[in-house]
């Protein structure tokens, strides 16, 4: 999102600006978490509604921490003003927080959190949308003197939430809240989270929907421009039907021409045969006066004369009558 990266002496990438929002139920000791991030800093924050904004600068890093209002234990009947403030908390560090810390307190004398408490934490986080888990780290804030078995019980109770946020978690021991090691570990996990999400920050749902709408509109406009460009480079053939009609007409003309040629050929053969037969008949009748020999000669001569007459008739038809008929048709 345009955030500048710095490189620490350990070689891990760190961001010059760090924006974090803290969530947790009422009574969760979120102040210990804030102290662990803003060591030695004045914790007097700026009140904004029910949220509190803390700002600091450490080792060249500008840090903004927003404390969101808590909810009551395992109650899922949250007042509307609390829901609104939880949603508004992510708007106090624009363009959006790099990480969301869900604080789960680990008390010395208490057993692990109830299923109802974990369900309430899950429900309140998802007021920000399902996308919230991509940017969430679960922070177990332990009282001083809490033993390892108690911590493990709390981690097991939060198993469903940890699964949703990819297992990202961090344990804060109260006795070590001012430790440089504690702070470095937290910052390293936040930096790793930012690297995983390729620098993306959590965008509030209203902005996210607006971005999606603008993206869809831009995509639709791009598709429309591509279609227009395609039409400009490949315009529709407005003469297509005309060309098809002319092509059809040419095919029909060629077919009629072929049919005409066939008819002409058949007619020629018919005329030759007819005239030959007619000439043979006349020749045989004329030569019959001279006997059989005369009749035979008459037939041959008659066929010859008949063929000549037929050829003459076809010549006249082809060179005169047929041309006149074609010109009249044109």
Automatic annotation (TrEMBL):
Annotated AIG1-type G domain residues: 18-216
InterPro entries referenced in this protein's UniProt entry, alphabetically: G_AIG1, GIMA/IAN/Toc
UniProt keyword terms in alphabetical order: GTP-binding, Membrane, Nucleotide-binding, Transmembrane, Transmembrane helix
Keyword check for Disulfide bond: no
GO MF term set: GTP binding
Key word Glycosyltransferase present: no
Biased composition (Basic and acidic residues): 241-259
Pfam family for this entry, one: AIG1
Chain residue ranges for the region called Disordered: 219-259
Protein name stated in the entry: GTPase IMAP family member 2-like
Gene that this sequence comes from: LOC122137613
